[in-house]
Amino acid sequence: MALKAEPGGRGNFKNHTKNQAEEDAFDYVKFRNIPKPTGVIGSIAHMVKGALGGGILGGHVAYMKAGVAIAAPFNILFGIYMGYCLYILVMSAQKLYRRTRVPSMSYPDVGEAAMACFPNPKVARFSRFFRYSIDAIICIDLFGACACYQIIIAKSLKQLVENTQRTSIEGINEGYPSLRVYLACMIVPVILICLITHLKWLAPFSIGANLVVLFIIFVAIYYAFVYNPTFEGLVPITILYQYFEFVGMQVFSMSCAGVVIPIENNMENPKKYPLVLVIGMFLIICCTFNVSFFGYSAFLENCESPITVNFPMTLGPKILKFLIVVMIYITHALNFWPPFNLCFYYLKQRHPEDQLLKWELIYRACFVMLIGVIAVCFPNINALMGFLGTFCLSNMAFIWPNMIYLLTNWERPGLGKYNWRLWKCIVLIGIGCFFLVCGSVVNINELMSVFR
After folding, report:
1. Which of 180, 189, 285, 395 is the most exposed place for a label (fewest CB within 10 A)?
2. Which of 241, 271, 231 is nearest to 386 (CA)?
3. Integer Cα distance of 171 and 387 in angstroms
């Protein structure tokens, strides 16, 4: 018999199998009710689409921060590191489906189930806390990405209105306001689109947004060969401080940690997920490398986020800048949807059922207003991307997958000869913690620099 996780989790996860044979006998795919399952190609497309959001528009600045001799190899290494961690996360999830008799779960479900099934009750009792931690970080990451989207829109609009190549947070051109004024004026229009409660009205536009991002990659390559065909002036290495800025921005631009489990849940043949992950991460690495390397090659020390700000102020690039404004505006509403629903699951329990729609709209407006205030206070998009990459995604993509893997494999199949699974995870978690602490400190310092 298959059990079911509650929407938003809160499942009563228990180890329902007594041995490995019993665990292997449960076919979780058989109990999944998927109206339109995706194949390998569709799953790869969803994975790449989930990773390549607004973050990729700042990849060239990340390369400028670290220097090309450091950034290029670490771009690849981060892709491999992230790909492996997400692989063990999905493999652990598939073990937990069989172990708990729950055929599909979300990321927080998997974290809670892994800890709830741990043989030591002193550890298992923290399973709900672990779940809430994952919920919180997912919300910070996705709401923070919304703040980044608002800054991208505001910077693009500011440049188009002022018709100038260079932009800044302050109003350097006489008669024009600062970036913060643009951000404040955007709050009401952003609230209006985020009041849409039916995702199906917005979903088709996500395809257009991804096509625009894909086109920007080719435009970046074109300008690299126009402005710097010999690739001169690339700084090979900078300083350690700027390396941690690079880490956050690069991880933010390529992470798909939040979508890997939902994609696996919707696959026709989940056993082929490793193939999806390998091809998907390869394409993500290629896309981030191309826009980052060629973008940096084209604009060198003048790199700004988003990369479209660096494009010349002629008719064609202006149209592209305007398209980015429109597409990011719609993508903001799509990105706002999952974390708001997660928060509203808890909030709606405080209100009568016949007034839920009214309160949902009120909360939507309040959340967007709060995100807008954060963007106004911290309009440094590079530092904000860097903070989200190091603080949120170091946990989601590096640390937690290894913790879940350890919790899941501790008893069955065990830690292996010489406890090799334990030592492997300690090393990978240690690397993630190093990036989490050092990167967060550096990027918080950069965020606070706007007040100095």
Report:
1. 189
2. 241
3. 25
Token readout for 138 is 């997912």
Which pLDDT does position 37 carry in this prediction?
85
For residue 406, what are the contacts with CB-CB under 8 A and spacing of at least 6? 421, 422, 425
Q: What is the mean pLDDT of residues 267-282?
A: 92
Q: What is the pLDDT of residues 73-98, one digit of tens each?
A: 999 999 999 999 999 999 999 999 99
**The predicted structure's pLDDT at residue 7:** 44
pLDDT band at 439 (very low <50, low <70, confident <90, very high): very high
The tokens describing 155, both together, are: 């910077």
Task: Give residue for tokens 């006998």.
Answer: 25
Residue 225 to residues 6, 242, 302: CA-CA distances in angstroms? 53, 27, 16
Q: What does the angle CA 178 – CA 181 – CA 185 come to, to the nearest 5 degrees?
A: 150
> Cα–Cα distances in Å, from 8 out to 4, 110, 114, 134, 135?
12, 12, 16, 12, 9
Distance, in Å, from the CA atom of 293 to the CA atom of 300, rounded to the nearest integer, reads 10
Q: What pLDDT does 8 receive?
A: 45
What proportion of the chain, given as a percentage, has pLDDT over 70? 94
Question: Greatest CA span in the chain, whole angstroms?
Answer: 74
Nearest-angstrom CA–CA distance, 408 and 395: 18
Q: How far apart, in whole angstroms, are the C-alpha atoms of residue 100 and residue 27?
A: 12
Strand partners, 267: 38
Identity of the residue numbered 350? R
239 SS3 class:
coil
- Residue 324 Cα distances to 60, 112, 135, 213, angstroms: 17, 38, 30, 8
Contact of 250 with 295, CB cutoff 8 Å: no
- The 3-state DSSP composition of the chain as helix, strand, coil percent (nearest 5) reads 75, 0, 25
Q: Cα 165 to chain center, whole Å?
A: 29
| pTM, two decimal places | 0.90
Alpha-carbon dihedral 78, 46, 269, 421, rounded to 10 degrees: 20
**Structure confidence by residue, pLDDT tens digits, 323-342:** 888 888 888 888 888 899 88
Q: How far is CA 426 from the centre of its chain?
A: 24
Please report, as a single letter, which amino acid is at residue 1.
M
Contact 402, 88 (CB under 8 A): yes
Query: Token match 């625009």: residue?
Result: 212
Cis status of the peptide bond prior to 317, with omega within 30 of 0: no
Residue at 141: amino acid letter:
D
